[in-house]
Amino acid sequence: MPAAVPIILFHHLTYLKHNIMTTRISYIISLLLSLGMIFLGVRFFIAPEAATDGYGIHFNAQGDYSFHYIKGIRDVFSGLVICVLVLMKERRALGVTLLAGTMIPVTDMLIVLSKSYNGVFQALPHITAIVICAVFGIVLLATKPQSKS
Length: 149
Hints:
This protein is mostly helical.
């Protein structure tokens, strides 16, 4: 049944086909999301231990922050890709990227929830990212481009 939710949502959002405001809001939310991802990625370079705690896991790096830097650069790259797609007004590519990228916060949430010391509270940032990526990805794909008349 949960697999049907995006399909149902997609069909209910088809009325958005000519709504410029919906696209602008989606772009703004996507831009904010991308800036947040860039911030989180940079934080893995600047304050790796705080970034790991913020992610929702305990990781004793013992001074080796290689994992943190790998995670950080991936977050920065993902944020930059979304930012570029917004600035270039690549609506469909942005929608597909957000929908496909939903796998990242889903996996993050599962990792966080797999730890015995975590609960739903620690997973909330990841759950929020799942909702944002899925909803705005669908909205961007369901919204028909405006004709230039």
